[in-house]
Every structure is written in structure tokens, then in C-alpha cells.
């Protein structure tokens, strides 16, 4: 075994890296052995009776190799099966002792190791990254006091209010059971059948139909803990807290047509992008923010803090930024780390506690339970990626694949034979004690009336969108419901949309050839058998704000072009100055620049200099890039005749991307966009690089959608 040599922390103290290092192996310079350590002489031929004879059962080398292979796969996650992960560190900006005693949220000198896994929800392990879907955003903090997992999503709300409905939600959204279609898509009958009967889903559905659900990169997504948690300070006082991750890369989305094309051109696009950004040293960063609500303000809001279908708009309670997470190391092995990592919202440390959110309470059961079948037994906490930094000392024993070798006779507490060890820790010694919440209630299966406003925040979200964001939501609903085969389901959905926004409902209905109608109240699907329908009318509360600009992605553009992917389209004969100037300036600003040319190998500039080509027009695709620059000179004559080059430009234009060119390069763009306006937003044909870089920061020029190219 070799200790890992990579060391991301300046002070050299990353306990998780050191711990993982003990388990890493490197076969360089070693003989091949069996799992029992016997050196293998022939790994090419099985043992046979004669060189043309039958194979022999005696062949322990073949049997061992094949048996291990036969069992290489483990069950994939029931949801969030498709994921990508990275290691990093979290550093606090300011001590939070007023609210929480958690050590990693009190000491600004500690760099807490983290492991983060991003995921889609619906698709299988090998499905596309580019699905319209919620993204998982799960962070494991390896703190000095044990593991703390913040297992969130990239939306601040969820589809359902009670964990009881989770299996139904997942059964509805997963590929339909009779034919396992569709993969990595919610655009099918069973999903919308369920949703059309579940008005509580409407708020999260609005987020799902927005560009949040088709992120340009995992690096440009916000993350949310969703539930209201508690911070507990040294005096045992509780504050409510909501967690936010704010990317320093901005919040960026794809065009829907682009997402669908990208799914074919590079189905691993998000995974590759995260991997390459980290390999290139362009480490993605997120700031951790908290919204804190004093205990005594619990009932001051027009929605219930325990209801996971509601956010607290930032305009009502500001997000306080308290620290920064940097992802700076790719996993060494996908299976050992990304696949075997086991998150759990119940992995908390002293200073962080739960609320009675009925979705959170159900999650606290589900995650350990699912790991038992996924990872094969109760000892998955001993898998290196899941190990806590402090020693694990308790009286739990045995089980499949136990790694610890506990010494002595004592595995119970209290004991005298083991001097009472391991000891219980007092609160002042760091022992976890649950917050003492007073409960005075009857045992009852019922939902609080305070959960029955299903539409106000959905409307708030829609009202907060810019014109192009609204258009994208209308189109997304039209697409998804257009894929639904049963007309009554489509109708119920457009009726539901009428409760959110009349214009939205009409636009979607129009696309479907329907007319939205007032919903019958209450919506029957979500009422228990003996429920009183009068209790189930959805209430509309009046929110103190009519718009929440903080939910619009248009307000979250980046202020740099770090790790943005920019294609320089060129060919032999390119003008030296034009070419080198753009490449140098973009690289200096940490963009990921690629030279795309008609063929692989080298491009030769006008003066005879040669530069390696990163990708050819055959294997590259414009959908992979954030922006395109056409470097001029004689190369443009070649590109003007090249169908691949014309398609590349047309697609980039269609997807509203920034396009730059110098005087000759502009000829190519004009051939593709014959009616190009002189000063069209996002198309810079005067070679002005500062203008081009400014356009890249603006990400997309969505107005072009109003006059689309037939590409
Ligand atoms: Fe999960 N969820 N979930 N979930 N969830 C799982 O646990 C579950 C919910 C989230 O990268 C499973 O290890 C229930 C909300 C993420 O490994 C499972 C309910 C949020 C991941 C499970 C929810 C999440 C999971 C499947 C409703 C955002 C991927 C595999 C009561 C706050 C973690 C696994 C990773 C994974 C159950 C709802 C986030 C089955 C029962 C809300 C990011 O245990």
C-alpha cells in the first residue's frame, strides 16, 4: 500500500487524504497474484486436460478470477443512480458560535475535507447527464466530530410534503414498468398522471420546468438543503436554519434543444466537465450560506417552515454567507469512492439537529435502510470513503464484511470488565444530545392545514422570471405534456397551471390544443379514504412579496470566464496575430480553450507556425462549448466550404451563444446567418476581445430564439 502523494492543503494536514491513502494500491512493478497472494504464472490459459481437452474444476486461479468478475456489480441507487463526485475542502469565513456549537462551523482555521456527489434522479447509472431533472448535491463533511452529510438538491423545495408519498413519486417518474421506457426523462404518462393529482408538487414542478433542471455544468448550480434544520448553540438554544450553496461560477443553464443534442454528442458531458475542470486546476468553488430564523419566529411566516414544498425567499430572510467549499481532487477510483459513498441526512454532529418536517423524518429512516441492500450489510461505514475521521468506538459487532478486530470479551454497556469502556460522552465532552422539543399531541395521520397552500410560491417563482425564462418554462411544459399520451392527464395539468398563472396555462394549453378549465376543489387524488374533502381545499396565502429576483438565474451570471469552454474554429492559413492573440488572452483568463479544425494533427498559420489541433470538426460539436471564436485569415476560405464548420456556427448561433470573429471570420458567420444585424447582441465581428469576453460572461443571448435559424 502506498500513501497518497497528492496534498491539496497548504499546511499538509488533511486527515481524510491520509486515511484514504492507507487503502490505496498501486500495482506498478509488482507481480500478479491470486487474492491469497500466490504469484500467478499464466493468466492467459485455463487449466485443461490436454490442449484441446475439457477445462478442469481444479483450476483455482480461473475460478477465483471468474467468480470475482461475476460479482463485480452492486445494485445501483434506487434514485440518484447516475452521479459524479469530487474531493475538496471547506473553510469557514466566520465563527457561527452564536447559533451552533458544531466545531467545523466555529474554527476558521480548520479546513474540513469534503466529498461531494452530484447526481440526476430518474435515470440509471449509465444514463445521460443531460436529462431534464433535479440534480442531487450531496456533501459529506469529514469533521473532527464525525461525518456531517448535507444531502441536498439543486432546487430549494421538493415535490411532496410527506415521506409516505416518496415511493409513489419515484414509481411514477421512473421508466414505466411494463417496457422500461423512457430512460432519464420525466416526459411520460405515469409521471404527469401522478403530478396532476398532487397539487403540492406544483412549486417544485415549476423549478423542474425551468432552466435549473438543465444545468450547463454541475459547477454552475446552486445547492439547497431544502428542509429546515436546527442549529444548536452551547447553551442548548435552537435556531432554525436553511442551507444554501452559491457557486462562484454563476448559475447557468442549457437551451433545451442543446441539452437533447448534447445527450447524443457527449452523454457524459457533466461528468467530463467536472473532471476536466479539476484536472486543469480550475477548481470549482461554492460559498455556503445560511438563512437563520429564531425559534420564536417559527410561526411568523405565511407558510410553514416544516413544509418542504416551500422556500423562505431570500428577500424575506437574507442568506448569510459563512464559508467556502473548493473541489480540488478527482477520485482515484469511481467504484470505490463515487459508487460506494453512502450519504445520509441523519449523519449529523453536535450543533446540528432536525425539525419535524415529515419528509425529513422519513428520510432519516430510508438512507441507512437502502445502503443495507445496496452495499450489502451493516458495515458500510467501514468502507474507506465512508469512514469518519475520529475513531469509531462502540459495542456494535460482527456482520458481513466486518473490518475492525475488536479485542477483549466486552461488547456491552454498562460493563465493569472493560472498565466501563467505551464511555458515554457528556454534552460538554462532545456527546450528541437531541434538542429537547416539547411535544403535546395526539397520535394521528393527518397533514397540518398550514401545508395546504400549494400554489402561492409556484406563482411567486413564475412571476420572478425574466421573459426568456418564462418562455422556457412554457416550452418545457408544452414539450413534457406533449409527450404524454393520455389527453385527460394533459387537461388536468393545464387546469392545474391555471392556478399558477393564467397566461402560462393558456400558452401551454394552446400548444396542446386544449382550453384550461377551473380545477374542481379539492383535487381528489391526494385525499385519504376517510378524509373530509372540506379539509383538503388548497388555500392561497398572500405572500408579502410578489417577486423574488433571487430565484431568477438571469440574476446569477458569473463575473469571470474561468473554466468556460471556448472553441477557436480555424484551419490552415489562419492569420498569426488574430489566432495567437485570442488564444493567449482567453487562456490567461483561465478559460478552457480548444482549437477545432477540419482535421486532427496541426494547423499551420500563415507564417508557417504549427499549433496542435484539439479536436476535428468530425468529432467535436458546438454544443460542448460555451462560446465560439472564428479566427480569420485565409483559413476562412476553407471553412466557408466545409459543411461541418457551417453547422458548427449555425448550432452555436441557434443556441444563443456568444460568437466572436475578426473581419475575415465574420464572412463565415454571415454565410450562416444571412440576416445578421450589424450590432447583434452576442455576435462580435470586429475582433474586439474585451467585448467577446463580456459576452461570454453574459452566457446566452436568448432573444435570438425569437428569430430561430432552421438548424
Ligand atoms: Fe433522497 N434518497 N430521498 N432526497 N437523495 C436517496 O439514498 C429519500 C430527498 C438525495 O449521491 C437514496 O443512498 C426519501 C430530498 C440525494 O449518493 C434513498 C425521500 C432530497 C441523493 C433516498 C427523499 C434528497 C438521495 C437512494 C423523501 C434533497 C443521492 C440512494 C422522504 C434535500 C445521494 C441512497 C448520493 C438518495 C430516499 C427525498 C436528496 C432511497 C425516502 C428532499 C442528493 O435512500
Automatic annotation (TrEMBL):
Reactions the enzyme catalyzes: 2 H2O2 = O2 + 2 H2O
Database matches in Pfam families: Catalase, Catalase-rel, Catalase_C
Essential cofactor(s): heme
PROSITE patterns in the record: CATALASE_1 (PS00437), CATALASE_2 (PS00438), CATALASE_3 (PS51402)
Keywords annotated in UniProt: Heme, Hydrogen peroxide, Iron, Metal-binding, Oxidoreductase, Peroxidase
InterPro entries in UniProt: Catalase, Catalase_AS, Catalase_clade2, Catalase_clade2_helical, Catalase_core, Catalase_haem_BS, Catalase_immune_responsive, Catalase_large_C
Top-level lineage group: Bacteria
Residue ranges occupied by any Catalase core domain in the UniProt entry: 33-421
GO molecular function: catalase activity
Biological function: Decomposes hydrogen peroxide into water and oxygen; serves to protect cells from the toxic effects of hydrogen peroxide.
Cross-referenced PANTHER family: CATALASE, CATALASE-B
Family label: Belongs to the catalase family. HPII subfamily.
Designated name of the protein: Catalase
Organism: Kaistella yananensis
Amino acid at each position: 500500500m502506498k500513501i497518497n502523494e497528492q496534498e491539496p492543503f497548504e499546511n499538509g494536514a488533511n486527515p481524510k487524504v491520509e486515511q484514504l491513502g492507507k487503502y490505496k494500491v498501486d500495482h506498478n512493478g509488482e507481480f500478479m497474484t491470486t487474492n491469497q497472494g500466490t504469484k500467478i504464472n499464466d493468466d492467459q490459459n485455463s487449466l485443461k486436460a490436454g490442449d484441446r481437452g475439457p477445462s478442469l474444476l481444479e483450476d483455482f486461479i480461473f475460478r477465483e478470477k471468474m467468480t470475482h468478475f461475476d460479482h463485480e456489480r452492486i445494485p445501483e441507487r434506487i434514485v440518484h443512480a447516475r452521479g459524479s463526485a469530487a474531493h475538496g475542502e471547506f473553510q469557514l469565513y466566520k465563527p457561527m458560535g452564536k447559533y451552533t456549537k458544531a466545531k467545523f462551523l466555529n474554527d476558521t482555521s480548520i479546513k474540513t475535507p469534503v466529498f461531494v456527489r452530484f447526481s440526476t434522479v430518474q435515470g440509471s447509472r449509465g444514463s445521460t447527464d443531460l436529462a431534464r431533472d433535479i440534480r442531487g448535491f450531496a456533501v459529506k463533511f469529514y469533521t473532527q466530530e464525525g461525518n456531517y452529510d448535507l444531502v441536498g438538491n439543486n432546487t430549494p423545495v421538493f415535490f411532496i410534503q410527506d415521506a409516505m408519498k416518496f415511493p409513489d413519486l419515484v414509481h411514477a417518474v421512473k421508466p414505466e414498468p411494463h417496457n422500461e421506457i423512457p430512460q432519464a426523462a420525466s416526459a411520460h404518462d405515469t409521471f404527469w398522471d401522478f403530478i396532476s393529482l398532487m397539487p403540492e408538487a406544483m412549486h417544485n414542478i415549476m423549478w423542474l420546468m425551468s432552466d435549473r433542471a438543465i444545468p450547463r455544468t454541475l459547477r454552475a448550480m446552486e445547492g439547497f438543503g431544502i428542509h429546515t434544520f436546527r442549529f444548536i448553540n452551547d447553551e442548548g438554544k435552537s435556531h432554525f436554519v436553511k442551507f444554501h450553496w452559491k457557486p462562484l461560477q454563476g448559475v447557468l443553464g442549457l437551451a433545451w434543444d442543446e441539452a437533447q443534442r448534447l445527450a447524443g454528442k457527449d452523454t457524459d458531458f457533466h461528468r467530463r466537465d467536472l473532471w476536466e475542470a479539476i484536472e486543469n486546476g480550475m477548481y470549482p468553488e461554492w460559498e455556503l450560506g445560511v438563512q437563520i430564523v429564531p425559534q420564536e419566529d417559527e410561526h411568523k411566516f405565511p407558510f410553514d417552515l416544516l413544509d418542504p414544498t416551500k422556500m423562505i425567499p431570500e428577500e424575506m430572510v437574507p442568506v448569510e454567507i459563512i464559508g467556502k467549499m473548493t473541489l480540488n481532487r478527482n477520485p482515484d477510483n469511481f467504484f470505490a469512492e463515487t459508487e460506494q459513498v453512502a450519504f445520509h441526512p441523519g449523519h449529523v454532529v453536535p450543533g446540528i439537529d432536525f425539525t419535524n418536517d415529515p419528509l425529513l423524518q422519513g428520510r432519516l429512516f430510508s438512507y441507512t435502510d437502502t445502503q443495507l441492500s445496496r452495499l450489502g450489510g451493516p458495515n458500510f461505514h467501514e468502507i474507506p470513503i465512508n469512514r469518519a475521521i475520529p475513531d469509531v468506538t462502540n459495542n456494535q459487532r460482527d456482520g458481513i464484511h466486518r473490518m475492525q478486530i475488536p479485542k477483549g470479551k466486552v461488547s456491552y454497556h454498562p460493563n465493569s470488565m472493560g472498565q466501563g469502556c467505551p464511555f458515554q460522552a457528556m454534552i460538554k465532552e462532545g456527546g450528541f444530545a437531541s434538542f429537547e422539543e416539547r411535544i403535546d399531541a395526539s397520535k394521528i395521520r393527518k397533514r397540518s392545514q398550514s401545508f395546504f397552500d400549494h400554489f402561492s410560491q409556484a406563482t411567486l417563482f413564475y412571476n420572478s422570471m425574466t421573459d426568456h425564462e418564462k418562455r422556457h418554462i412554457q416550452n418545457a411544459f408544452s414539450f413534457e405534456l406533449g409527450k404524454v399520451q393520455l389527453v385527460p392527464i394533459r387537461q388536468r395539468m393545464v387546469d392545474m397551471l391555471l392556478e399558477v398563472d393564467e397566461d402560462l396555462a393558456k400558452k401551454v394549453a394552446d400548444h396542446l390544443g386544449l382550453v384550461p378549465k377551473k380545477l374542481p376543489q379539492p383535487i381528489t387524488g391526494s385525499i385519504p379514504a376517510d378524509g373530509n374533502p372540506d379539509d383538503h381545499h388548497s388555500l392561497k396565502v398572500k405572500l408579502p412579496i410578489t417577486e423574488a429576483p433571487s430565484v431568477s438565474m438571469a440574476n446569477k451570471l458569473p463575473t469571470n470566464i474561468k473554466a468556460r469552454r471556448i472553441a477557436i474554429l480555424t484551419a490552415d492559413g489562419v492569420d498569426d496575430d488574430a489566432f495567437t492573440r485570442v488564444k493567449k488572452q482567453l487562456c490567461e483568463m483561465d478559460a478552457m480553450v480548444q482549437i477545432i479544425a477540419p482535421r486532427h494533427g496541426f494547423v499551420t498559420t500563415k507564417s508557417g507556425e504549427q499549433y496542435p489541433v484539439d479536436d476535428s470538426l468530425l468529432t467535436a460539436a458546438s454544443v460542448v462549448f460555451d462560446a465560439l471564436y472564428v479566427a480569420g485569415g485565409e483559413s476562412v476560405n476553407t471553412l466557408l466550404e466545409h459543411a461541418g464548420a457551417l453547422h458548427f456556427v449555425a448550432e452555436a448561433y441557434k443556441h444563443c451563444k456568444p460568437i466572436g470573429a475578426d473581419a475575415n471570420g465574420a464572412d463565415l458567420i454571415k454565410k450562416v446567418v444571412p440576416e445578421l444585424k450589424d450590432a447583434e447582441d452576442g455576435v462580435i465581428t470586429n475582433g474586439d476581445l474585451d467585448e467577446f469576453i463580456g459576452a461570454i460572461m453574459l452566457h446566452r443571448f436568448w432573444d435570438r430564439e425569437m428569430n430561430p435559424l432552421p438548424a
